[in-house]
Amino acid sequence: MSAFTDKVSKRRTFAIISHPDAGKTTLTEKFLLYGGAIQEAGMVKGKQHMRHAVSDWMEIEKQRGISVTSSVLQFNYGGYCINILDTPGHQDFSEDTYRTLMAADSAVMVIDASKGVEDQTRKLFKVCAMRHIPIFTFINKMDREAKDPYELLEEIEQELGVETYPINWPIGCGKEFKGVYEREKREVIRFVAASKGARNKAEEIITAVDDPSLKEAIGDDYYATLQDDVELLDGAGAVFDLDRVHEGKLSPVCFGSALTNFGVEPFLEHFLDFSTPPMPRMSDEGPIDPMSEDFSAFVFKIQANMNSRHRDRMAFMRICSGTFTKGMDVYHVQGKKKIKLNQSKSLMADEREEIQEAYSGDIIGVFDPGIFSIGDTIVTGKKHFAFEGIPTFAPEHFARIRNRDTMKRKQFVKGITQIAQEGAIQIFTELGGGFEEIIVGVVGVLQFEVLAYRLKNEYNVEIVNTPLPYQFIRWVVNKDIDVKTLNLSSDTKYVEDLKGNTLLLFSNTWGINWATERNSGLELAEFSKN
Ligand code: G4P
């Protein structure tokens, strides 16, 4: 194996998803702690409780306590190089989650053991399932009162439609949490409560399941229950089938308590055993082998003004083959141009370290002078192929956005177009109209809040937002139609997007039917074709 293929085969890239508060941030911090990436997991600088997770860096995220955008973290563990892609927990940002999943080879789903499957778990899981990637489940907070583990697995299977396979099994919960039984090794990792805040690795006491001392250690009742559980799991449970895991049909499940560091390391080790190295990616020239030495990557996220100290724009790319080296010359397929990849950064909270080299599977952020769009491909080889595109979700909420101070027109136009290029919002104007009045469409209403906040903070522009009653959008496929002559219901509106495509906005499905029934030949599409 060459040094390059060895590096790629030791890479793992996963996205982490959860309902807010299930413990995604805590688990991420503990991964980093085990990887030795940071000394004290998570404690970067004070917010209310001196806790501010390394992966939350946008001001609005800190204030609202929600994750608005995804960030990327990298750490090393057991000879592997692991990239974690954080995702926003709120469903209003599920489009960002989808794009992030495009850059990941698998997903980790965190579930609160006392709550089970929650609203956002359901919604984010749906987005995950669209990608058909392996999903690893971590059932967290076992140090608190928890639902029955059988019930939890059943809930996941019923509500999310994925089979589960418990890799380990909890013994008790809350104050009576005794540890987990590792099924393959047939041993019990005993729970030793780490001190609150737990900044050190968990101490581990491991006892074989048939060791006579176990009964005394966990108590007669728990011992008896464990024997029954072991028998039941071995007898009736699903068979472990790694192929089904890789197809996203069977989710390996581990139990633990991220806060007390318990079960994090075993989870990480199981994850490394069962997850795949970077997989081939589909392009218009067929699948691209991650072991190919020619560099290729695609842009899955664009983010401006991530840090008030660096007011610049970054394009985040997933490397799909070859090696990235700082300042390398590449070919930007969509822009049809040779460019130099400059100021490449890896993200580590506020501190952005310059990357010298990165490999297939890694995520890099490069300085974007405004040339990249989401989905763009970058290559170094002779073949100028393009990776499969990233679909745009159809917006479901619309508002008319006006600039409060007409003197600030330039900042307003700059801000709103930059934010639209990041893919957080979609903007439309009246046919042939300018930027005086803009209609903004979003997938989730919270995006409007983010828009107003960012325009004010990053561009010093205040806006007036008037909600509009539209709920559906359709692209007019026919290029030769004059929409002004169409027979449309009175509450249908026609607009155009930044690329000059014509679109129709409808308040209800009745309006859509009206348009297609009364205008023969009119072709409407739910997604933009370009
Ligand atoms: P999120 O990113 O999924 O939104 O969740 P986050 O990690 O921020 O965790 C949400 C809350 O749950 C935090 O408490 C965190 O300390 C707690 N938590 C996470 N994992 C565990 C666990 O294994 N056991 C227990 N008992 N609690 C856990 P908080 O009160 O919101 O924050 P803090 O003030 O304690 O920091």
Automatic annotation (TrEMBL):
Domain Tr-type G intervals: 9-279
PROSITE patterns named in the record: G_TR_1, G_TR_2
Keyword list, A-Z: Cytoplasm, GTP-binding, Nucleotide-binding, Protein biosynthesis
Any one GO molecular-function label of the UniProt entry: GTP binding
Residues annotated to bind GTP: 18-25, 86-90, 140-143
Subcellular location: Cytoplasm
Biological process annotations from GO: regulation of translational termination
One Pfam match: EF-G_D2
Major localization class: cytoplasm
One Gene Ontology term, aspect cellular component: cytosol
Protein function: Increases the formation of ribosomal termination complexes and stimulates activities of RF-1 and RF-2. It binds guanine nucleotides and has strong preference for UGA stop codons. It may interact directly with the ribosome. The stimulation of RF-1 and RF-2 is significantly reduced by GTP and GDP, but not by GMP.
Entry similarity comment: Belongs to the TRAFAC class translation factor GTPase superfamily. Classic translation factor GTPase family. PrfC subfamily.
Protein name: Peptide chain release factor 3
Species in which this protein is naturally found: Intestinibaculum porci
